[in-house]
Design brief:
about 240 residues
Length: about 240
Amino acid sequence: MTSPSVEPPIAPRPKWRERLRALGNIPPVFKMVWEAAPAIVVSSSVVRVILALTPVAMLAVTRLIIDSIVGYTGHRSALPHYFWWLVGLEFGLAGLSTALARLIDFFDTALAARYAHHVSVRTMEHAAHLDLSCYEDPAVYDKLERARVQGTDRIVMIQSAGRWVQELITTASLAASIFFFSPWLLFALIACLVPAFLGETHFAFLGYSLNFQQTPARRELEYLRMAGSSKEGVKEVKLLG
């Protein structure tokens, strides 16, 4: 007679106070990113700032081009002598935007490799300095597992933070230009962004909480995978059943 399976209890969702307290871990993460590759971080930041300001520059050039065309078609003025230079500048800014986006992808890939290597080395150094008695505690294994996994998982957070800063600069520059024409459009922009920001923040915290709670299960799964797929483990399973 088989015993009924017992479902694990559902962990409570993190409260907003816990979520805000978790934000205190962000500065140490970025410190490790800086220690892993300071040159790449500086280069990526500079490129992101330039790319974030490119849309505003393109809009300014487009405005001059459209004003020139409207004045010419309305027979109010002739095309300015620098009109085709403006068209060429528009194409140049579009090409520059594409090139900078590819350059950011390269920096993200290089930073991911450097950061994963840096975190892995620090994890191995810390594990080597622990006492043997620490390895008898499952909580220590869970912490080491989180540190090992975060060597790759935190890359997504770091790249998202870079994109968030880039989009923030773009939004701020566009908002300043919109406020110049109509302040009400700026208020509408803020009203549209706040719900999206709250939603993204809510589900980001839920995802982190879920990954944190699944650490023991992932560690057990990794152990079973190694025991069932390695040649030593398969031999023992076949011999001992």
